[in-house]
């Protein structure tokens, strides 16, 4: 089962049960190569090979709402289940939870951007920073690598541009990387890799997320892209041997945030007071405070945002378990204050993150639309 929303409408992550971090440990058991020390919350059917197809941005609520545009994936909903992303519900965090089998507090990629401890710089986990070694930033062996070491044929099928990136190294090292930019390439590469037994093949599609960011999830463009993803999943299933299991998951959902629902910290008096650095993303902000300013920042942001967001100190967030158990080295990456948006609210900074304010669809917070993900067996 997954968490139900709290009084503020926020859904807690289901770590150790049905979170994204539980997917590969569950697949490993289904392949007959269980990962020691990992809880297994998903009951997946045994198979000689598994294909894990991650559709970026395909929230469970979005799929249910727009099932008419995705008849194949919708047909799997009855026999499938719903899980949760981790916190924040964002790509870099989620892909690393999937790849390591660990919650964000352990693997350390705690948002789209996070402070590099001891500096006044943010690390963009998608773009990375050449001065940050991804194997030091995320030092744990990945589930991909552990399975490969156990004799499973492990392959990652992804865009060529992502090969060797900081995020790829942090989240997927240990897998054989196959670059594939087009749907036909992805399907062919996945079929070839999954011919091995035992094998795990991971394949990633980012186009739905990109479309949602640019046009919004209420757009005709997004519905068309969903239909294309559905066709890709169905073609992949048809091309795979019947003994191979196809597992379709997502990293997060998405909500549209109109301009009227956005709060610009650069235009509201007092929101910058006591703030040294702002990170995270528009739906889930990490706020790094000047010495001694945490209580004042919490009070100011709560007063400004009211019922539009949950504003908590780092200690309160850690106590709620949003990041799972937090390692000592990860703790200073978290904001002194963290802000989880409700409904369609977004907290932007036109000074620091101008591009972010041009996006229509956003994600990162703990609303059901962002947190709940499909886990579908085909």
UniProtKB/TrEMBL annotation:
Source organism phylogeny: Bacteria, Bacillati, Actinomycetota, Actinomycetes, Propionibacteriales
Organism, per UniProt?
Answer: Nocardioides zeicaulis
InterPro entries xrefs? Alkaline_phosphatase_core_sf, Phosphodiest/P_Trfase
Q: Name one Pfam family in it.
A: Phosphodiest
Q: What is this protein called?
A: Alkaline phosphatase family protein
